[in-house]
């Protein structure tokens, strides 16, 4: 069909360029056709085992390494890019259109990268291109939180580069394969991946930035960044036991934040971390079944999470706000969106016949097989929590609850089509899981629809529903109010600045006398000096000729003295 | 015939063209002659480089006097690379100079301006070609004196102060160099670099030799604006005419780095460097230079001064490479000499383009200009990426080698400082981007259009070179490795 070795990021980078110079329907055509053509190429022409290397400096950079793992991520990224492109067809913003194409391209570049340097390049591009999707909302909050997002993401890249360099120095190889937690380099890379994968305590950029992005931007964001990190972890650290525990914590703690959070897109961001937790657990277990579960879960997760973000984006687009306390009764204006949202909610809650069920049960089954009984219970609790905050809370407060009296039009047609495709995929994967299973990287016999699985899941779900109804009836359920929920960001947005201010206060009070006297004598010295050699003593200012000559004397004297003493 | 006299032609050609230019009628003629001369020089320099890339050495005896007695021009890969850099930058500055110089220099001085420019080129090329220390001093003076004149020709009256300051500093530096050379001559009785190297070996411990070395290093350090001897540089770059900022920023300090490498590693030796605290002093000043000059750059309120401080920081990187005193470190230095010339050349061209349109490089005049001059802005952006060291640009290559050299040397602190310097670079380049692109234009009545093609073409040639040399490193890294092999830098023994 085409040349057989075209790195998958190339079409999207070309598309970014074409989008930059076009507008109107040609641009929309580019946005739609690129993922379709590129996806078809990947599906039909690229076979596992294709490798493309480019020599740069003294290295062979592996721009494309296709195996079953990277290919599966490649497929789902193309699907997500296509759905998100349809969803954002009404957008006229050039920045967003270009950034989103670069962003998709970078994610593909990272997933197909075969060495750490290529990975690093796309890792950083991913950060830089995505931040424009946050900034594109042009609110003060978005700009600030985008800045924090960028700093954290770029730091992740720096850690990755440092780890890669160390590894290169120690092993003379830059190949991106199993890395493991041995030595500093492994840990550096692990933390770099962990930041992007929203490990607990490193997660804050996600609920901070995603809800501030544009309605369309969040759909893109939810699909690529974290899943690239999941891929990287699955490639570099499968079977690292620590990940099981990290994953378990990730599934649990966001639930509480999600339950009390008022901004529904932030609720979804927390539930994104919770879902990532399941995948991280799967990587930690590291058996073929568990890894298959992780990959399958990433696949179905991208679709239903995008669907949920799309439905909330549509509500935000039409109603102008996304606070649980201010919405309600939207199903009267946006019935179709409501239906799609419920399908997404059922998928994320892992109702049988929806996509979440067929993938999550793999991870849970693998966990039992490997004997992590307690962790299994934790995940079970987390599954109930998912139903509560994502499965019920999202559709309930947005579309039903107390009618807030907002009357709008149904979502635009392009949004409905995008949501429709995603919803269909959710049901298709849920009912016909064998197609997804056939794509999975490892050969495993697994079938989710047996009595035990279905019954356990249904029981769990029913009790969770019961809990929601009951707490709501007797008024135990936290009220939806406008409030700021304090998360780990408190450390660097409040504690550090406050501590600095406090220390400064202490310094002022205790050391005042001492420092004042020292200061006075310093000032006097400075005055004497400035009388003899006029001019300002600041590094950034222009300096008088005399002081320059003095420096020469100092350096020469220093040089000779050091030489004599050496 | 030409090939045998290639080394000399490269110097003689602009030397002969200079007086002719001076007597040409005012107008485009002096510019055209200079343009032709620089392009001929570029051809000769490329030719010369192609002869020595395999590691061979051309020795040319001036006037037929055999080497230790007569002046020798001794060309190896390092000289040829530096000569190519100088003539290449000159050749690319000239098209850029046409409009900017007509705007900034009074018409009756045009022919003199180009004559002095050619003299400066003679000086720089001579430094690159010669294998004789005293001859090197003479060429250094030619280039320095002509650059004082060129800087003083800046539009604002403060250009005179800046040139005067540079004159004082430069003269002190040159005098130090001369004192050092004198001391070595007293000890050895020779001025030829190779001969000096051999005769110095048995008397390396002499106090006079050490003192001479100190004078030479400090003198050159002044010329290359090693922190804290950089103080003359910001104003010199700021007040000089745009074309001269470009030319000097891209070549003058780089040539000084070359002199330092020659003196330290060819005349003296790696062992001598390691036996004296030289390498530690280089590392110490390099570390301070990278950090403090970058911070100083952040505080600037003028684009040209910001770029000048950034140059000081970048030179500190080169000094770090020398301080590591390993083959990898010096390779990084040489590669960075080349790559930094590309990026700073492009950035100063862009600054000149802004000055061409609004008459000043003060930040308050530049608000929102990037929207009106998208090509200039894009050039600043890409060159900025290169300056930061983003992979895919030339800047990445040199930073990469420098970090590798630091790791090889087991100096984690140095590696950290290099990365920290990159972060600081992000800060000050972002300051420019924010200013040029995100701020609303101050005076809505002001209508600014994109810079003319004569300014954009050279600028974008350098930008493309930045990307090209970020991907294909055969010329830069390949030649630098050959050059470093010839320098004979001993392996690190730890």
Give a quick summary of the entry.
The complex is a heterodimer of chains A (566) and B (494). In chain A, 72% of the residues lie in helices and 2% in strands.
What does this structure look like?
The complex is a heterodimer of chains A (566) and B (494). Chain A is an all-alpha fold and 566 residues long. Chain A is built from 21 helices and two strands. Chain A has a two-stranded antiparallel sheet. Chain B has a domain at 301-494. In chain B, helix 1 (6-23) runs antiparallel to helix 4 (110-129). The model of chain B has no long low-confidence stretch (mean pLDDT 89). Classes of the chains: A mainly alpha (566), B mainly alpha (494). Chain A binds chain B through residues 56-57, 117, 120-121, 124, 158, 162, 165-166, 169, 539-540, 542-543, 545, 547-549, 551-552, 555-556, 558-560, 562-564, 566, and chain B through 164-165, 168-169, 172, 176, 210-211, 213-215, 217-218, 221-222, 228-229, 231-232, 234-235, 275-277, 280-281, 292, 295-296, 299-300, 309, 390-392, 397, 400, 403-404, 407-408, 415, 419, 471, 473, 477.
């Amino acid at each position: 069909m085409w040349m057989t070795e075209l790195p998958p990021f190339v079409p999207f980078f070309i598309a970014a360029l074409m989008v930059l110079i076009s507008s109107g329907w040609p641009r929309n055509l580019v946005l739609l056709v690129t993922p379709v053509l590129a996806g078809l190429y990947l599906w039909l022409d690229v076979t596992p085992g294709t490798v493309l290397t480019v020599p740069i400096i003294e290295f062979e950079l592996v721009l494309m390494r296709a195996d079953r793992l990277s290919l599966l991520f490649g497929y789902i990224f193309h699907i997500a890019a296509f759905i998100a492109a349809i969803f954002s067809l009404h957008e006229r913003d050039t920045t967003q259109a270009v950034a989103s194409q670069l962003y998709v391209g970078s994610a593909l570049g990272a997933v197909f990268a075969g060495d750490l340097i290529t990975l690093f390049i796309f890792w950083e591009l991913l950060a830089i291109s995505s931040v424009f999707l946050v900034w594109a909302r042009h609110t003060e909050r978005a700009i600030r939180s985008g800045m924090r997002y960028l700093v954290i993401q770029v730091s992740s890249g720096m850690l990755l580069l440092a780890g890669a360099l160390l590894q290169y120095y120690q092993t003379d190889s830059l190949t991106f394969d199993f890395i493991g937690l041995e030595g500093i380099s492994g840990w550096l890379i692990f933390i770099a991946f962990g930041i992007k994968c929203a490990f607990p305590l490193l997660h804050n950029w996600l609920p901070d930035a995603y809800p501030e992005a544009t309605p369309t931007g969040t759909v893109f964001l939810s699909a690529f960044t974290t899943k690239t990190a999941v891929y990287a972890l699955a490639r570099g650290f499968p079977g690292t036991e620590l990940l099981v525990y990290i994953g378990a914590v990730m599934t649990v703690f966001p639930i509480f934040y999600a339950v009390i959070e008022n901004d529904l897109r932030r609720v979804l961001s927390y539930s994104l971390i919770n879902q990532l937790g399941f995948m991280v657990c799967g990587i930690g277990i590291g058996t073929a079944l568990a890894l298959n579960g992780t990959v399958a879960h990433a696949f179905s997760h991208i679709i239903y999470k995008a669907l949920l973000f799309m439905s909330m984006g549509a509500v935000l687009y039409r109603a102008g706000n996304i606070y649980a306390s201010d919405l309600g009764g939207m199903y009267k204006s946006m019935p179709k969106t409501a239906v799609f949202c419920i399908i997404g909610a059922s998928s994320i809650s892992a109702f049988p016949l929806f996509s979440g069920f067929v993938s999550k049960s793999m991870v849970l089954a693998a966990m039992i097989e490997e004997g992590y009984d307690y962790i299994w219970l934790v995940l079970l609790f987390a599954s109930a929590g998912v139903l509560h905050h994502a499965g019920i809370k999202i559709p309930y407060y947005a579309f039903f609850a107390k009618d807030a009296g907002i009357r709008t039009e149904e979502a635009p047609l392009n949004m409905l089509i995008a949501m429709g495709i995603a919803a269909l995929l959710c049901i298709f994967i849920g009912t016909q899981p064998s197609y997804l299973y056939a794509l999975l990287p490892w050969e495993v016999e697994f079938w989710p629809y047996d009595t035990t699985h279905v019954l356990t899941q249904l029981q769990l779900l029913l009790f969770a529903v019961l809990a929601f109804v009951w707490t709501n009836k007797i008024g135990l359920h936290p009220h939806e109010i406008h409030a700021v929920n304090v998360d780990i960001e408190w450390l660097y947005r409040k504690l550090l600045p406050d501590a600095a201010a406090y220390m400064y206060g202490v310094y002022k009070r205790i050391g005042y006398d001492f420092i004042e006297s020292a200061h006075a004598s310093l000032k006097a010295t400075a005055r004497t000096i400035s009388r003899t050699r006029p001019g300002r003593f600041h590094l950034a200012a222009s300096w008088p000729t005399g002081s320059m000559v003095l420096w020469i004397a100092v350096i020469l004297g220093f040089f000779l003295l050091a030489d004599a003493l050496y | 015939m030409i090939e045998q006299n290639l080394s000399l032609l490269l110097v003689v050609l602009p030397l002969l063209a200079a007086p002719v230019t001076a007597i040409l009628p005012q107008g485009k003629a002096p510019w055209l002659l200079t343009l032709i001369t620089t392009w001929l020089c570029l051809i000769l320099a490329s030719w010369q480089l192609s002869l020595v890339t395999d590691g061979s050495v051309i020795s040319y005896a001036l006037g037929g006097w055999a080497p230790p007695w007569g002046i020798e021009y001794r060309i190896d890969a390092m000289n040829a690379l530096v000569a190519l850099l100088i003539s290449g930058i000159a050749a690319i500055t000239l098209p850029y100079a046409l409009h900017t110089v007509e705007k900034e220099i009074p018409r009756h001085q045009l022919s003199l301006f180009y004559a002095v420019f050619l003299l400066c080129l003679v000086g720089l090329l001579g430094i690159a070609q010669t294998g004789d220390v005293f001859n090197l001093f003479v060429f250094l003076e030619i280039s320095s004196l002509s650059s004082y004149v060129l800087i003083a020709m800046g539009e604002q009256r403060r250009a005179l102060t800046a040139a005067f300051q540079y004159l004082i500093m430069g003269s002190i530096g040159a005098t130090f160099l001369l004192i050092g050379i004198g001391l070595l001559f007293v000890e050895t009785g020779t001025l030829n670099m190779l001969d000096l190297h051999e005769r110095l070996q048995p008397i390396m411990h002499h106090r006079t030799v050490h003192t001479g070395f100190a004078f030479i290093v400090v003198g050159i350090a002044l010329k290359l604006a090693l922190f804290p001897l950089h103080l003359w540089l910001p104003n010199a770059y700021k007040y000089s005419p745009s074309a001269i900022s470009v030319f000097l920023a891209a070549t003058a300090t780089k040539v000084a780095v070359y002199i330092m490498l020659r003196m330290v590693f060819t005349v003296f030796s790696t062992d001598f460097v390691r036996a004296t605290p030289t390498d530690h002093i280089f590392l110490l000043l390099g570390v301070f230079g990278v950090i403090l000059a970058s911070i100083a750059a952040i505080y600037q309120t003028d684009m040209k001064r910001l770029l000048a401080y950034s140059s000081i920081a970048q030179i500190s990187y080169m000094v770090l490479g020398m301080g590591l005193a390993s083959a990898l470190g010096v390779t990084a230095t040489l590669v960075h000499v080349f790559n930094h010339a590309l990026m700073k050349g492009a950035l100063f061209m862009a600054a000149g383009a802004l000055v061409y349109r609004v008459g000043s490089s003060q930040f308050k005049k530049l608000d929102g200009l990037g929207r009106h001059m998208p090509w200039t802005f894009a050039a600043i952006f890409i060159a900025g990426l290169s300056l930061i060291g983003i992979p895919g640009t030339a800047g990445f290559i040199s930073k990469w080698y420098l970090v590798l050299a630091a790791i090889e040397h087991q100096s984690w602190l140095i590696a950290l400082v290099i990365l920290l310097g990159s972060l600081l670079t992000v800060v000050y380049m972002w300051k420019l981007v924010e200013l040029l692109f995100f701020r609303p234009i101050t005076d809505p009545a002001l209508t600014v259009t994109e810079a003319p093609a004569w300014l954009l073409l050279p600028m974008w040639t350098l930008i493309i070179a930045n990307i090209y040399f970020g991907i294909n490193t055969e010329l830069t890294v390949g030649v630098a490795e050959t050059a470093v092999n010839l320098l004979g830098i001993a392996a690190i023994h730890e």
